[in-house]
């Protein structure tokens, strides 16, 4: 076994522990350990990159899974680069899709990008964050530079990507411009001389392209750290605005708290691990209490208050809890109400309202939602496309109609 170039100190090991908390995969761990050791020995911080395409104007809690990891590494003294993919957004990321995604217009991208960094600054330390736009180096490439970049990666390697392979075998179209997306994301790492790039598990292929392109350009290859994808409030699909199952970090405190209270007791623990700043030991102790008979609602309240306090204020968190509880006391919610089970999770809220006999038709359900008259677990429902995962829900229409519905 060869000797390490830099000493692995207890501080380096502790930093590695921070990096590994909640992560899905860190490639290559031995290389990253040496990067950390070199940084400690030389005093030169690592360059840690996260790229987000401004495909929607709001950042949601799913995005903060990787932002939280960035903040943890930032607090260790490393340089974090928040990269806004204004150029790559015009291509459209095909990751995990079975069809070509229409690219955004420049106007849409600029409108969305204007809000991104302000929201990310609620997680990252803005004084210690380098903000960049990949149009800085992508636009100047021009046609000649794009062709030269494309010559550094093969079609065979590109077709190793799972979603491309599936679409090709199914005879579904793959546009040539989709191959450019991982190439351009990889070139971002070259331009920024990245030491570590973060992303969701669905970004692993793109992150590895960056590692290979750095080798092609004579740079030390970056390590990659992937974080799990956070399921949305439906408990099924990853959190996404397009799926209408998201919790935006700029949402009003009551809405944010209500949505967090609506997630299932099982999903709650994944939210704790990926979103909470509590130690893993604290979370394990809390889970043991719940397993021993403590009401899971208590833990969910703690999570909801922590998240609302982070993105608003401690007083806003207290206010959101008080408003939530006010709906369930003083007779606001009756102790006795019809109970029923509806099968087929996840189920659309309109269907569940009909099955629970709270409305006579889908049109009535839509009208009540539009008028703000529908609540689930005390939180006002604003999304007519909301999907309910398996769980128990107190559903309310107007002031007097209630049902406790178990979705299975």
UniProtKB/TrEMBL annotation:
<dbReference type="InterPro" id="IPR002305">
    <property type="entry name" value="aa-tRNA-synth_Ic"/>
</dbReference>
<dbReference type="InterPro" id="IPR001412">
    <property type="entry name" value="aa-tRNA-synth_I_CS"/>
</dbReference>
<dbReference type="GO" id="GO:0004831">
    <property type="term" value="F:tyrosine-tRNA ligase activity"/>
</dbReference>
<keyword id="KW-0648">Protein biosynthesis</keyword>
<feature type="domain" description="Tyrosine--tRNA ligase SYY-like C-terminal">
    <location>
        <begin position="335"/>
        <end position="388"/>
    </location>
</feature>
<dbReference type="GO" id="GO:0003723">
    <property type="term" value="F:RNA binding"/>
</dbReference>
<comment type="similarity">
    <text>Belongs to the class-I aminoacyl-tRNA synthetase family. TyrS type 2 subfamily.</text>
</comment>
<dbReference type="InterPro" id="IPR024088">
    <property type="entry name" value="Tyr-tRNA-ligase_bac-type"/>
</dbReference>
<feature type="binding site">
    <location>
        <position position="241"/>
    </location>
    <ligand>
        <name>ATP</name>
    </ligand>
</feature>
<dbReference type="InterPro" id="IPR014729">
    <property type="entry name" value="Rossmann-like_a/b/a_fold"/>
</dbReference>
<dbReference type="GO" id="GO:0005829">
    <property type="term" value="C:cytosol"/>
</dbReference>
<dbReference type="Pfam" id="PF00579">
    <property type="entry name" value="tRNA-synt_1b"/>
</dbReference>
<dbReference type="InterPro" id="IPR024108">
    <property type="entry name" value="Tyr-tRNA-ligase_bac_2"/>
</dbReference>
<keyword id="KW-0030">Aminoacyl-tRNA synthetase</keyword>
<dbReference type="InterPro" id="IPR002307">
    <property type="entry name" value="Tyr-tRNA-ligase"/>
</dbReference>
<keyword id="KW-0436">Ligase</keyword>
<dbReference type="InterPro" id="IPR036986">
    <property type="entry name" value="S4_RNA-bd_sf"/>
</dbReference>
<keyword id="KW-0067">ATP-binding</keyword>
<keyword id="KW-0963">Cytoplasm</keyword>
<dbReference type="GO" id="GO:0006437">
    <property type="term" value="P:tyrosyl-tRNA aminoacylation"/>
</dbReference>
<comment type="function">
    <text>Catalyzes the attachment of tyrosine to tRNA(Tyr) in a two-step reaction: tyrosine is first activated by ATP to form Tyr-AMP and then transferred to the acceptor end of tRNA(Tyr).</text>
</comment>
<protein>
    <recommendedName>
        <fullName>Tyrosine--tRNA ligase</fullName>
        <ecNumber>6.1.1.1</ecNumber>
    </recommendedName>
</protein>
<dbReference type="InterPro" id="IPR054608">
    <property type="entry name" value="SYY-like_C"/>
</dbReference>
<dbReference type="GO" id="GO:0005524">
    <property type="term" value="F:ATP binding"/>
</dbReference>
<dbReference type="Pfam" id="PF22421">
    <property type="entry name" value="SYY_C-terminal"/>
</dbReference>
<comment type="subunit">
    <text>Homodimer.</text>
</comment>
<keyword id="KW-0694">RNA-binding</keyword>
<keyword id="KW-0547">Nucleotide-binding</keyword>
<feature type="short sequence motif" description="'KMSKS' region">
    <location>
        <begin position="238"/>
        <end position="242"/>
    </location>
</feature>
<feature type="short sequence motif" description="'HIGH' region">
    <location>
        <begin position="54"/>
        <end position="63"/>
    </location>
</feature>
